[in-house]
Design goal:
The chain is α+β, with helices and mostly antiparallel strands and 328 residues long. It contains 10 helices and 4 strands, in the order ααβαβααβαβαααα. 19% of the residues are buried.
Amino acid sequence: MSSPTNTKQPPKRKASATKNPLAAWFNQQRNAIQFSMERLWINPLSTWITLAAIAIALSLPTSLHLLLKNLQTLTADKREVPTITLFLKQNVGEQQAKDMAELASALPEVEGVRVVTRDQALENFRKITGFAETLDSLDDNPLPNVLIITPRLQLLGNATLDVEAFSTKLKKYNEVEDVQIDVEWIQRLRAILSIAERIILVVSVLLGLTVLLVVGNTIRLDIENRKDEIRVTRLIGATNAYIRRPFIYGGIWFGLFGGVLSLVIVHLALLFLVQPVGQLATLYGNTFIISGVDVAMTLKILLASSLLGIVGAWLAVGRYLWRDEQLA
């Protein structure tokens, strides 16, 4: 008879969380995430109201920022046509205007010169105004010859004084009646947009504080509902970090989901405005297109909203823990 085969297996190792602190930490994080997600939807109506308040508070500065961003495209260098218009005197003929255009084009500050004769100006005025019969009744053409000068690009940007100095130089010519800088509206718009940037910054800070208050108040109510549970966990040795962890994750979810909902609101608003803005641009002979929220801006909004949720939850839990320690 053959001897029985030895089937004894090696003893199994008992899993010990204390021997692997990293695994224990990940296990605590997983449990806190799962618990915070479950707590988030215990009262869905209250959760949706909180998320809606956060989304509205976040969508307002986002919408204002997009409005400012789209307006700034009107003053971008690619859209600017920084021209200087020279209105010549009435006694300056067409040939004199062309000769003066050749002289002006030789100046180092000039990129190009275009001559608009008085006949061309009259025809353009006739098309724009529609006063054809009234203009035909005039004995003489009241419009002067015009030179449209485009300065070199290095005169642009912040060197506005150089453009003005150059226009003053051109006005000294005897043939010139008046000089008009056609970038003044851009300078005014830039000044308005600079003020708007500061207003949007103030509004963003105030609405950010609103998000902090909303998240903090929501977490505070959750803490009050779990007050007895927290005291029991303290008695069995729970640390402040252990108590704080699920509430911090809850703040993250409120901030993150509120940020996602705010992006949905902004995108719906943009879709609502695309058609009328396109029609308005067409009436002005332009192809202006509204720019929406890009990937970088999306990530910034979600990161900022999540950080606001974390800070709001941290302040709420920290206040409770400090008060509880003072009473102990």
